[in-house]
Amino acid sequence: xxxxxxxxxxFFTSCITTLLFEEDAYVPTPVVGCLFHPDSTWKLHLSLSExxxxxxxxxxxxxxxxxxxxxxxxxxxxxxxxxxxxxxEKGYYRSPKKPSPGxxxxxxxxxxxxxxxxxxxQVPLPPDMEYHGKTxxxxxxxxxxxxxxxxxxxxxxxxxxxxxxxxxxxxxxSVVDSSEYSYYENYYTNLLEEDILDTFELDYRLYISDKGxxxxxxxxxxxxxxxxxxxxxxxxxxxGSASSHYINYHKALAxxxxxxxxxxxxxxxYTNIQGGGGIFAAYNFNN
Length: 287
Hints:
single chain, four-stranded antiparallel β-sheet, mainly beta, DUF4249
C-alpha cells in the first residue's frame, strides 16, 4: 500500500491540517497523444501513465522508461488502411502523410504488453467565416481599444465547435505563450450575453460550442486590449473548427487546472481511447 499526504493551509485560521489517504497499488496504462489537422503530417505519442501521487514528476521527453517503442501503429481512412506510423524518437510515431478534411480516421495500435488500443475521429471542415477588419470598442474600464470583428457562419442541422487564438509577434518573437499578455479581454456578442453558447478559455484560446443556435451567424469582437499587444509588429488570429472529442478533452483539461488539490477522488480526464487513455482528436482552421 502507498499513502498520500496532502497538506491544507486554512486561510482564516492559519492552521495546517495533514490528511492521510490510502492508495491501491498503481498499474500503469498506455496513453495516446494525437491531435491532428490537415496542415500537418501524422504525429502520435505513446507512453505509460504515472500515478498522481508520484512526487518525482517525469519529463516525458527525457524519461525513456515511460515510452512504448515497439508498437504497431496503423491509421485507417474511411474504413480503409491509410498509413502506418513508424517509431521516431522519445515515444513519437510519425508518418509523412496528412489527414484530409471531412474524412474519418480510425487509430489501431497493437502492443506486446497491453493488447489493442483503438480510437476514431472525423476531421471537421474549416469554419465558414468572414473577417470585417479592425474596429474600435470600449472595454470594461471605459477605454477605447482596437478590436477585430469576425463572423462565423454556423452550419445548420449539426453540432459545431470552434476556437479562436490571437497571436502577436514583436521583432520576430512570438509572445502568444507569455502570461503577461491578455488576448481575450473583451468578447462582445449578443449570443454570449444571452448564454446561448457554451464557452471556456484555455492557453489563450477561446473555445465555443454552438449550444442553442443552429445555422445562425456568430459575431465576435476581440482584442488584446493592452499596450504591449498594441505595439506588436504583427498580429494574427486563427479561427478553427474542432471535433467534439477535441473540445471535450480541452474542456476537461481547463477544469483540471482549476483545482490544484484533489480530496474526494482522483481527477478524471476526458478520453476517447479504447484500451488506454489519452486523446485522438481532430481540428481544422482558417487564419
